[in-house]
Design brief:
heterotrimer; A mainly alpha (201); B alpha+beta (67); C alpha/beta (456); A: 201 residues; mainly alpha; Four Helix Bundle (Hemerythrin (Met), subunit A); 7 helices; 0% strand; elongated; C: 456 residues; alpha/beta; Rossmann fold; Ubiquitin-like (UB roll); de novo design (two linked rop proteins); 3 domains; five-stranded mixed β-sheet; 16 helices; globular
Chain lengths: 201, 67, 456
């Protein structure tokens, strides 16, 4: 390449911030699972895990914004403003970018409802928050399909790492949930443990 | 107007963030559930109390007007 | 208890009920027909009590109920007129619910009332619906095929006769101790399991945002039906000035017999339970009870144990009971025979109460099982000294920290047992026990909840 042109810079920026966004989103998912299962990070108090989950998600939104703006501003490809939030409205690679738009819409819902958390019912907030498990995989697939770079070399390695981290976290969550005592059995479980173990007293 | 901290015991799952953020007013029992001081929140701790309310992952802590 | 219906035996003679005006319901019993009579159908009901007549407007009914001083007969003794007035002001009109769940195993008065005099309850339900301005009513009754069949029949009878304006739906309650708790009941009505809900703000419970519920115990409804017919002055011819009227009580006598009876508030507990009271040691002024009974349980499994001698001198009235840490509650009275171990009996009940925790609030589902296990330990020979210390610590941690009063009530019962049976605890430490009869005395259901279905 003879020199970094303006358009090339935008092109690089878009892809670089895309990768960072995906890394951050993966961290958000893993941290969210930790919060839910009351897991801890070594050396950090419990409230810090929740704080990190929220801070990293806002950081991810910031990088997501740059990723989207640089992609739209890049004259090399025609995407169009609408395609940011309207899925499959892009002229360039409508399908793969459309997945990204869906993911962005879901992320927007997650962020907005979490900011307004105290004003909505707990059930409604939880229901929407589960959409995180749709937003993240959509972001991964969007990455793989949008750019050939994502399918080889370092970037593929990073993506693979993200998928592995999320998979491990989800598997951990499922195994913990499977061992959790259901409400109807909680008192009985403790009672049988106590009756058997008089040493507890 | 006085404000008091209240825990929703059904929503509370024993995360313990509240006790970490506001140890002056909240301690944890031997099972990890919060024991909240039964007094209005002093002015100097209002800000910390709001942070504790925001920091609860289960939204189980609330600041309510003293009846 | 679950699945079988205890039909009331002939009412025992309480200690001299006050005489009232002449008429079919001048004296007691008011809610139940003459002793020995069978269930009342619509025709017999109208023959005995007369027709309901026009209520004269909801305001008039509420005023009459307020003048009568009717309080809830479900245990909380909340003034019924205030609930009716709140319901009358609520928009849209609240759903009216007759609470016949009777989760308390030691109580069978609601079941008996529904079986014998369903039309009194149904009259009351219609009156409450009219006062609330509601066109729908619910009768919430423990899952019992025979009882549900009988009630469905009574509702159909009235539909055929055209007596009812509000539609009555029969909703089965799960066989849980907490099924009749007000917020658990409302939960069940919305299709969720019957578990209590955290309610920091008191008032009429909400079925949904904007839809309230008026919940009244079935016995309260029956009294409502009589007040509407005969008026407040008549209602007050029984009972005391502060606690007027009559109530249904479930009596567990020392000889093992159990029955449901109607008694005026303020009736002598000794009279109801058949306790032989003799004048105490000369000049002491304290009655002594013939050796057959050691203690009396007042109010049910969230109630209080009292020493027999103390209970024998008391009337069944909150005015006398509250200063002693007890309350009338839902009218359960049990006379513990002298040859039983009070700690063992309470330990059985404590285990049941622990297993009936809804499992929602950490202090409750953690504390009650530990307390129950410690009490079981204390009920055995030579208990470890740490059992008592642990129990006291957990009791302090548990009270007032749940969404409902299950932990508080359970702790109240257990603390009173430790007080009243302190001598027994001393005997146990030496490896002895006064209990010579190992048979269980207080009724405790066998099944324990294992899945969500058991709460639905």
């Amino acid at each position: 390449m003879s020199g970094i042109t303006h358009t090339t810079a935008l092109w690089y920026a878009s892809r670089a911030t895309g990768v960072v966004t995906l890394l951050l989103l993966t961290a958000v998912v893993v941290l969210g699972i930790l919060v839910n299962r009351q897991g801890r990070l070594p050396g950090l108090p419990g409230f810090a895990v929740t704080g990190l989950h929220r801070s990293v998600s806002l950081l991810a939104v910031a990088f997501l914004a740059v990723h989207v703006v640089t992609a739209i501003a890049d004259p090399y490809v025609t995407i169009g403003l609408a395609a940011i939030v309207v899925p499959f409205a892009s002229a360039y690679k409508p399908f793969w970018l459309g997945l990204g738009a869906v993911s962005l819409d879901l992320i927007a819902a997650l962020i907005l409802t979490s900011l307004a958390r105290a004003r909505m019912s707990r059930r409604a907030w939880r229901g929407i928050h589960w959409l995180a498990y749709a937003a993240w995989p959509l972001a991964v697939v969007h990455s793989l399909g949008s750019s050939a770079d994502a399918r080889s070399g370092l970037v593929l390695g990073v993506l693979a790492g993200c998928v592995l981290a999320a998979a491990v976290a989800v598997a951990w969550r499922l195994s913990r949930a499977a061992r959790e005592v259901p409400r109807a059995r909680r008192a009985a479980a403790i009672l049988s443990r106590m009756s058997a173990r008089k040493a507890e007293l | 107007m006085g404000k008091q901290l209240r825990v929703d015991p059904v929503a509370c799952a024993g995360h313990g963030a509240c006790a970490e953020l506001l140890p002056e007013l909240i301690t944890l029992d031997e099972w990890g559930y919060p024991i909240v001081a039964d007094q209005p929140v002093p002015r100097g701790l209002r800000h910390a109390a709001r942070r504790a309310v925001a920091g609860c992952p289960a939204l189980a802590l609330a600041l309510a007007p003293v009846p | 208890m679950s699945g079988s219906l205890t039909l009331p035996q002939p009412a025992l003679a309480p200690g001299g009920p006050p005489r009232g005006p002449e008429g079919p319901v001048g004296a007691l019993p008011r809610l139940l027909p003459a002793p020995g009579a069978g269930p009342v159908d619509l025709r017999a009901h109208l023959a005995r009590y007369g027709a309901l007549g026009s209520a004269g407007g909801q305001d008039r009914l509420i005023r009459e109920v307020a003048a009568a001083g009717l309080t809830g007969r479900g245990g909380a003794a909340f003034p019924a007129a205030r609930k009716l007035a709140a319901a009358g002001e609520a928009r849209p009109a609240p759903v009216v619910v007759g609470n016949g769940a009777e989760g308390e195993p030691a109580s069978s008065k609601d079941r008996s009332l529904l079986w014998i005099s369903p039309h009194l309850v149904l009259d009351g339900l219609q009156l409450a619906a009219a006062a609330a301005g509601s066109a729908t009513a619910v009768l919430y009754v423990q899952r019992d095929e025979r009882l549900h069949g009988r009630l469905a029949g009574a509702i159909a009878e009235r539909a055929a006769a055209g007596t009812d304006t509000a539609r009555v739906d029969l909703v089965p309650a799960p066989d849980r101790f907490l099924a009749g708790e007000e917020s658990a009941l409302v939960s069940r009505l919305t299709g969720k399991p019957a578990r209590p809900v955290y309610r920091p703000v008191r008032g009429l419970p909400r079925l949904a945002p904007g839809r309230a519920a008026l919940v009244l115990n079935v016995e309260t409804l029956a009294h409502l039906a009589l007040i509407a017919r005969y008026g407040a002055a008549w209602f007050r011819t029984a009972g005391t000035a502060a606690e007027p009227g009559s109530m249904l009580v479930t009596l567990h006598l020392a000889d093992g017999r159990a029955s449901v009876a109607e008694a005026p508030l303020g009736a002598s507990i000794a009279g109801l339970l058949g306790l032989e009271v003799a004048a105490g040691p000369a000049g002491a002024g304290v009655p002594s009870v013939g050796g057959a009974v050691q203690a009396v349980l007042v109010g049910g499994y969230h109630g209080t144990w009292l020493p027999a001698a103390e209970a024998a001198g008391l009337p069944l009235a909150n005015e006398a009971l509250r200063p002693l840490g007890a309350a009338v509650g839902a009218g359960v009275l049990a006379a513990l025979p002298a040859d039983r171990c009070g700690l063992a009996e309470t330990a059985r009940v404590a285990r049941y109460l622990a297993l009936e925790s809804a499992g929602q609030c950490g202090p409750c589902f953690n504390g009650l099982p530990r307390i129950a296990a410690a009490l079981e330990h204390l009920a055995g020979p030579r208990p470890d000294s740490r059992a008592r210390a642990g129990l006291e610590r957990w009791a302090g941690l548990v009270s007032g920290r749940g969404a409902c009063h299950h932990p508080d009530g359970s702790v109240r019962l257990i603390r009173s047992a430790l007080r009243v049976f302190a001598a027994e605890a001393g005997l146990h430490e030496q490896g002895r026990c006064r209990g010579t009869d190992p048979r269980p005395f207080l009724p405790v259901p066998a099944g324990l909840p294992v899945s969500e279905e058991d709460w639905s």
